[in-house]
Design goal:
326 residues; mainly alpha; two-stranded parallel ribbon; 5 strands; globular; binds adenosine-5'-triphosphate; binds L-tryptophanamide
């Protein structure tokens, strides 16, 4: 059976881009493949962070994943640091990756260029991500467009390791969800909606109140024409609203455009569709948040399942690279 693996960082607040671009597609993947989904807390350490906040965000994100519809009976849902093999294989990946290759990662260039403390972990981050993926003999990695380069690197590392040390890893492939693959910021539709901007008026948060969602969409940037059509280059703001409306209602942006002649009604319907799409998720989240013990229990089951698979891969990789068995 096809193996799927993906991860999400417990940083900031989950936004509409994460939900439509990643989490909802994951809930569909879990029924089509043997799937593992991971809250990648070790990745969150690459940026300055607060310990209490990291703990709280990790638990909250897990509850959000459950609320969106990941079913621990169907998929394996776990926290990265609960499975020590992630950090262990990451070292082998760091020693397989070239310095030059890591220097070319655009995400590193973007994030390190913003100033502030730049950890060595931010630089080696793609090696940890490769480890996440390769530990589980993953075939498919559903990610947003921004992660394309990291999955390409993972493939290169797997092939390099296999050719140097013999067949060890499955070479994975990235997949990109069709609907909602790139939801843009409502105030700057040329930038993706991002957790780093989670307090901004252009970001809709999963746990936003309906009133706040309506307000943000009403104020979304459009353009000086008044024609409603999907044309990302010429009309980024309107096209983003159509992507959101389409993804929230299970249609393509072009289909969503049909029948609109003005921006007002388009915005009103987009807001209503988003509120309606998020309401049941918010309600389920509130239930889960009231019983953190249950989430902890589910995570322990997930970690045990993941560890079994990961341990076998690490044993194989260590033997092939020449580490003396104890
Ligand atoms: P950051 O702002 O720190 O880059 P992020 O909002 O991109 O964070 P991640 O944890 O990096 O969040 O991403 C989680 C998942 O959500 C990934 O699969 C990513 O590709 C997807 N994703 C993130 N932003 C968007 C977006 N605007 N539209 C669609 N998918 C997105
Ligand atoms: N780097 C990814 C999160 C991530 C991931 C992974 C995604 C870490 N490990 C493995 C897929 C597979 C991000 O920032 N979105």
């Amino acid at each position: 059976m096809t193996r799927v693996f993906s991860g999400i960082q417990p940083t900031g607040n989950v936004h509409l881009g994460n939900v439509l671009g990643a989490l909802v597609p994951w809930t569909e993947d879990q029924h089509r493949a043997d799937s593992l989904f991971c809250v990648v807390d070790l990745h969150a350490l690459t940026r300055p962070q607060d310990p209490d906040e990291l703990r709280a965000t990790t638990l909250r994100l897990t509850q959000i994943l459950l609320a969106v519809g990941l079913d621990p009976e169907v998929c394996t849902l776990f926290v990265q640091s609960h499975v020590p093999q992630h950090a262990e294989l990451a070292w082998l990946m760091e020693c397989t990756a070239a310095y030059g290759e890591l220097s070319r990662m655009t995400q590193f260039k973007d994030k390190s260029g913003k100033g502030g403390f730049v950890s060595a972990g931010l630089f080696t981050y793609p090696a940890l991500m490769a480890s996440d993926i390769l530990l589980y003999d993953t075939d498919l990695v559903p990610v947003g467009d921004d992660q394309r380069q990291h999955v390409e690197l993972t493939r290169d590392l797997a092939e390099r390791f296999n050719s140097r040390y013999g067949p060890t890893f499955t070479v994975p492939q990235a997949t990109f969800p069709k609907a909602g693959a790139r939801i843009m910021d409502l105030q700057d539709p040329t930038a993706k909606m991002s957790k780093s901007e989670d307090q901004a008026p252009g970001t809709i948060l999963l746990l936003d109140e309906p009133k706040s969602i309506e307000k943000k969409i009403k104020r979304a940037v459009t353009d000086t024409e008044s024609e409603v059509r999907f044309d990302v280059a010429a009309k980024p703001g309107v096209s983003n609203l159509l992507s959101i409306l389409g993804a929230a209602t299970g249609r393509t942006p072009e289909e969503a455009a049909a029948g609109y002649e003005q921006y007002g009604p388009l915005k009103a319907d987009t807001a209503a569709a988003v509120v309606e799409r998020l309401a049941p998720i918010q309600a389920r989240y509130a239930e889960l948040a009231a019983d953190p013990g249950e989430t902890t229990r589910l995570l322990a089951v997930g970690a045990a399942k993941a560890t079994e698979l990961a341990a076998a891969t690490v044993t194989r990789a260590k033997a092939n690279i020449g580490l003396l068995p104890r």
